[in-house]
Amino acid sequence: YAARSLWALMTAGKIAEAREWLDQLPPDMIEGDLELRLVAASVLAFSDRNADSLAIAREVLDEPDTAAHTRATALRIAAGSAVFADRLGLLPGFLAKWPGPTEEGTGPVFTLAALNTRAIYALHKGETSQVRGFIGQQAPYGDAGTLRLGAALGRMLSAMSHLWEGHPVRAEAALLPALLHAERDGRRDAIACLLASVLATACYQRGDSEQAQALL
Fold it and tell me: HEC string of 145-181?
């Protein structure tokens, strides 16, 4: 129950709340349950403890008899941790092992995670059209329930690709509707904050520093 609850909070973008609950769980409880340990690693991937998250994921991946769903989960965590730790050189290795959309143990959450990971790697190589191509593949899955955080990250990356090309107006148009929607669930949760930060950059680049400050 703890694992399912933390997973629901994390994928909905309630990362701070998930971290608060995680800090209240006894360490031996987390250590003794693989599912709970991986969910805990998912939460830690978005924090200053992303190195711990990566270590947990790698430990699971090194086990030769890891089940398909567990391996997919560990790969998603490892990729997310590497991104937040700014260790993008690790991403190709994780993506090479990523299961296909029809393989056992996968689903929409893992598909969006793979597309976001590929988009991040493309963005840092300056391949901005590829970024939007990867994110465009997310559209059929929607952005409800456990897909909220993944879909929001995709929108953010698409907007960043416009900023990379020097088109802040396009970035603003891509993010503003999504931010207004996200704010209904809380102006200071992770999704609203990550969208607002990039939108603020777009406003600042087009000369509206007051709006940028308000968003921040």
Answer: HHHHHHHHHHHHHHHHHHHHCCCHHHHHHHHHHHHHH
pLDDT at site 104 = 58
- Is 50 buried (19+), middle (13-18) or exposed (0-12) by CB count in 10 A? buried
Distance of CA 75 to the CA centre of its chain: 13
The pLDDT value given to residue 50: 86
Alpha-carbon distance 131 to 137, whole Å? 10
pLDDT tens per residue across span 165-187: 999 999 999 999 999 988 887 77
Tell me the longest C-alpha to C-alpha distance in the chain. Answer: 55
Phi first, then psi, for residue 148 (nearest 5°) are -60, -50
Smallest Cα–Cα separation from 72: which of 44, 99, 112, 54? 99
The answer to whether the beta carbons of residues 202 and 165 sit under 8 Å apart is no
At how many degrees (to 10) do helices 108-124 and 148-164 cross?
A: 20
pLDDT digits (tens, 9 = 90+) for 17-35: 899 999 999 988 888 888 8
pLDDT band at residue 11 under the 50/70/90 scheme: confident
Q: Which of 131, 211, 140 is nearest to 179 (CA)?
A: 211
